[in-house]
Structure formats: structure tokens, C-alpha cells
Fold this protein.
Amino acid sequence: MTKNQHTFEELQQLLSLEQLEDNLFRGESRDIGTSRVFGGQVLSQAVLAAGQTVEDRQMHSLHSYFLRAGDTDSPIVYSVDRSRDGRSFSSRRVVAIQHGRPIFNLAASFQLAEEGLEHQLDRPDVPGPEDLAPEMEVPEQELENLPQKLRRWLDRFGPWEFRMVRGHNPLERVPKPPFQEFWFRLNGEPGDDPLMNRALLAYLSDFHLIGTATLPHGISWIQEDLVMASLDHAMWFHRECKLDDWFLYVCDSPSTSGGRGLARGMIYDRQGRLVASTAQEGVIRLRPMTKSGGK
């Protein structure tokens, strides 16, 4: 079994929710080497919980808020409220609960399939994934000598593979324009279930997005004095897709102010179809450091 196969099976297991009651589900967490649960994990599990209470309709939008940091050592319970089932649309509200307190809220809307007007913004003209170098990986021998927490952080992408259009070097702290594009693909077979493919796309959409807001300031996620955390996450699913090929994530950040940064994204398939759009605001703060370098 290859590393990618192992991590894809781990991701599949992570997204396998246990149904406790008609509107109650439980999911496990994955330790990625940080003190909190990865936001994309909670988001994708909430998508699946909401979707399992809807029949014959597909999720077309979601709006969510991260309320508290999740505990990687404890399961998360997802409580679904079946807010409304209309003739064309259904609405669901999901509360993620841990240790008796809500850590995440999600509102999602589902729609019966129908025909309608069509237009989209064109995909940017960028090099294809085959023309770009993969992100540098830590050699397996060196990885084994690192502390377990750091190994989990370096392996946080799991089965996802990325190709950065403009390059990506966390050690380089040079101000750049607030734009980035990268190709991604899932090293595994996602299956044909539209809900699962949406959940996987939601999971991926939390990678790199809010980081776009740091680019104009020449700061890096590896800085000890940087505090960065997601506050909310919105997503719109425009067209059906199956994550069995490369997709392009195009991100920009229109503003950073008041200790917060805003980032937006558009996800295109290889054929140039716009399949989803995203928006996220997050906390971005630089903490004062002592003269000795401590916090």
C-alpha cells in the first residue's frame, strides 16, 4: 500500500459519519499536528450530515461559522435541523457540538435539478499541472526523525496533491500581490456520489484560502508571532463534478483590516468549467514578541 492510498483511506474513514438518531450524527477527528481540529474537516462532515437528511436534491450553497477550536482527541456530534422542505429547495441547519458546547454552525440549501440560463467567468490562462513542479516533500527518512506532531502537520494534506502556479516558499517573506492560483487533485477514487464529492471539495476549499490575505504583507504561516484562524466559510456549488482529475483553485484577497482578512476563490475543472466559488474571512494578527524571541 502506497502512502497516498493509506492517506486516502484515512480520509474516507474520517468522512464516515455514525448515525445516532434521525437527525444526529457523530464524526471522528484527525490530528494534523495543531492544537485544533482542521476547519475543512468540520465543514465537510457537516456537509455530509446535512446531506443525509435530504433526498433527490443537491446542495448548492452553504454558509458557516467557526465558533470554537475543536478538540482533535474527541468526537464531534452533528445535530441537523430540517428547517424547510419546499417544492424546489430544502434548507438545513447543522450545529457541531463537542464537550457540550457548539463549535461550528452551518446553514445549507439544496435544490432539485433544473435547467436554466448559463454563463461563467472564464478560467485564467495559466500553465497546466503537468508544466508545474510538485510541492517539495520532506524525504521519508528525514520525516521519520521528526516529532510526531510535526510529522502530522507536514502530512496534513493527506491524499491531496498541489501544483502552485506562482510558486510557494514559506521561508520567503516578500510582499506579493493578493492573488494565487494552484492546481489540486485527489490521489484516490472518490466515487460517483454527488454529496461525497461536494464534501471532499469543501474539505479541500479550506486549504490555502485565507492565506491569500497574508501575501501583500510579506508574512508566512510558519512565523511564531502570526495568529491566523478561520472565522467563517461560504461556498456555492455551480456545476456537478467528480474529483478524479486536476482542478484549478483561483484565490484573491480584496481586503485585510481590523485584524481580519477576506479571501475569495473560484474552482475550475480541467475543461474550464466553474464548478464552485468560495469566500472566507479569518483572524490575522501579529503578536508582540519579547526581545529574547519568546511570546
Remarks:
- The helical segments are 3-14, 39-51, 140-144, 148-154, 194-205.
- The radius of gyration is 19 Å.
